[in-house]
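Example for tutorial group B:
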């Protein structure tokens, strides 16, 4: 995947996170690519397990990519960059 396409995918994922999880007032472009999405780490989004379920369903519906269950999903949802890498990998076959 070209860097431009990768950047576009990360922007699309950020917009999806903000819209699907109702992060009102949050500009998707202010979300760092490598910031932790879950937990209480400084600078992270502080999402929880319900957010993970909702986000997985949105990614499957909007991006057409299956998110596996349990431990594998935990590493995929580590950051926006990790989600984008998973989507790119699945799409490339």
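The residue assignment follows.
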């Amino acid at each position: 995947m070209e860097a431009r396409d990768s950047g576009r995918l990360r922007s699309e994922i950020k917009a999806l996170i903000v819209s699907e999880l109702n992060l009102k007032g949050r500009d998707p472009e202010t979300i760092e690519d490598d910031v932790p999405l879950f937990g209480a780490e400084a600078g992270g989004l502080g999402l929880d397990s319900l957010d993970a379920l909702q986000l997985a369903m949105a990614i499957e519906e909007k991006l057409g990519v299956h998110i596996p269950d349990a431990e594998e999903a935990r590493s995929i949802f580590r950051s926006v960059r990790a989600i984008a890498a998973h989507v790119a990998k699945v799409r490339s076959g």
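The two ends are 12 Å apart (CA to CA). Compare this with the pattern of hydrophobic and polar residues in the output above.
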